[in-house]
Structure formats: C-alpha cells, structure tokens
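User: Can you help me understand a structure? I only have the sequence.
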Amino acid sequence: MSEPKKPISIMILGKEYNIACTDEEQEILVFSANKLDKEMRILRDSGKINGGERTAVMVSLNIMHEHEQLKAKRATPEQEFSSHLSNLSYKIEKVLES
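Assistant: Let's start by predicting it. Here is the structure, written out as tokens:
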C-alpha cells in the first residue's frame, strides 16, 4: 500500500497553497516552492513583467528551458558516440568530395 498523503502549506508570492504529499516528497516540495517563490519575486521585482499570471508563465518557461537543457546534456554514451560518429562521417564525406 502506498504512503498516505498529507496536506502541507506552502507560500508563493504571499499566497498560501495546500498541497497533498507524502512525507518522502515533502522536503523536495518545500524546496521547490521556495525556489519558485524566489524566482517569481525576482522577475516581478524587475518590473519587466506585470501580473501574477504572466510572471508564473515566464518563470515556468524558464524552468522548463533549464530542465530541457539539462536533459540534453545527459546524453547516454551510445547517443554521444552516435553523434560523434555521424559528425566524423560527415567530415569524411566532405573531404572525399573535394
């Protein structure tokens, strides 16, 4: 049986949100909420974005962009080898065409 979820309270831009999570998930959820709150405050206070919804969307886009960049950097050795092999093959073809 899975661990029961309990509601915990987090604050983001002065608003309280109750999120259900397991004890195991709680630490990372609180950490994530604090980081999100910090990023949203930085963007909001910069004056470049007006409105809470727009701020949330821009911060979400920034986080997803960072996430995708990290995923791309974590290529498997096979993927890296394949990429290097393709690059080498392309270079050899170019030399042979000359």
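Now, to help you interpret it: The beta strands are 6-12, 15-21. The two ends are 67 Å apart (CA to CA). Let me know which part you'd like to focus on.
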